[in-house]
TrEMBL record:
Its EC number is 5.1.1.7. It holds the Pfam family DAP_epimerase. It catalyses: (2S,6S)-2,6-diaminopimelate = meso-2,6-diaminopimelate. HAMAP family: DAP_epimerase. This is Diaminopimelate epimerase. The active site is at C68, C220. Homodimer. The keyword Lipid metabolism does not apply. GO terms for biological process: lysine biosynthetic process via diaminopimelate.
């Protein structure tokens, strides 16, 4: 399945027993486009004790993430289309808490999904970003790399994002900074998804991303939420109005609500095919 081209292999652990010795290893194998299937990672759909279903997400390199926006919409589509939930609104457990999904259908099949992504995390040490002052947000912080000064705003949507605002999205240094900062930089002790944002108006922006654990992807749902939050923190956009985020794979609509402090994400979810994968050793 994919959400705006952010593609994962989904394993149904609700109707089947998943007896796999190592999910990180399986994630690395299925993601390989030559010896596997080819994807940005692996997502497990599992029973839950605290919600209607549970999602676990493994990046292409086998690392497990706490959250995945495009994954949440696809899991919502899968469980509704396969009659594993009864109503159009239900809870999905993630490692960063339970998220409420609402599916929008055409002829009984899910086309788009809205997910309440909860509150953004803004305190430096909770994102986490190294350094001080602790307990405060990280907004337009300078970062010098090879004599060049960049500025970033950091936001966690359960997973860490660093957002760099640029004038032209196609000229963003995504290869240079993504590779350098996403997985091993001391500044981001848990790694970070490195995003680039070009504001177009107070309710529209372009966004591209180098994802921690997966590299450049066509889209990142949590990253789209984080880019909208960062734009609002930098006073380039406003709360309580839907913000259209243009990603390489298509558009998402994000709204940060002031009454609840929650971020809502709406966008497509698509099924490509299903089948049997031979896990050979
Ligand atoms: N593509 C996802 C995010 C996947 C996890 C991310 N790479 C991380 O390690 O935090 C999304 O749509 O949010």
């Amino acid at each position: 399945m994919h959400g705006l081209g952010n593609c994962y292999i989904y394993l149904d652990g609700i109707t089947r027993d998943l007896t796999v010795s190592s999910f990180p290893e399986l994630a690395r194998r299925v993601s390989d486009p030559y010896k596997g299937i080819g994807s940005d990672g692996l997502i497990l759909i599992l029973p839950s004790d605290s919600a209607d279903v549970q999602m676990r997400i493994f990046n292409k390199d086998g690392s497990e993430a706490m959250n995945c926006g495009n994954g949440l919409r696809c899991v919502a589509k899968y469980v509704y289309d396969h009659h594993l939930v009864r109503s159009k609104q239900f809870l999905i457990e993630t490692r960063s808490g339970n998220k409420q999904a609402t599916v929008h259908t055409k002829d009984g099949i899910v086309e788009t999904v809205t997910v309440d992504m909860g509150e953004p995390i803004l305190e430096r040490e909770r994102i986490p970003v190294a350094g001080t002052p602790k307990g405060q947000s990280v907004i337009e912080e300078p970062l010098t790399i090879a004599d060049e000064v960049y500025r970033f705003t950091a936001v966690s949507m359960g997973n860490p994002h660093a957002l760099f605002f640029v004038d032209h999205i196609q000229e963003a240094p995504i290869h240079q900074l993504g590779k350098l900062l996403a997985d091993t930089a001391p500044l981001f002790p848990s790694g970070a998804n490195i995003g680039f944002v070009q504001p177009l108006s107070d309710h529209e922006l372009n966004y591209r991303v180098w994802e921690r654990g997966s590299g450049i992807t066509q889209a990142c749902g949590t990253g789209a939420c984080a880019s909208a939050v960062a734009a609002i923190l930098e006073e380039r956009a406003r709360k309580d109005i839907p913000i259209t985020i243009h990603l390489d794979g298509g558009d998402l609509t994000i709204e940060w609500q002031s009454t609840t402090n929650h971020v809502l994400m709406t966008g497509e979810a698509k099924t490509i095919c299903d089948g049997v994968y031979f896990y050979e050793h």
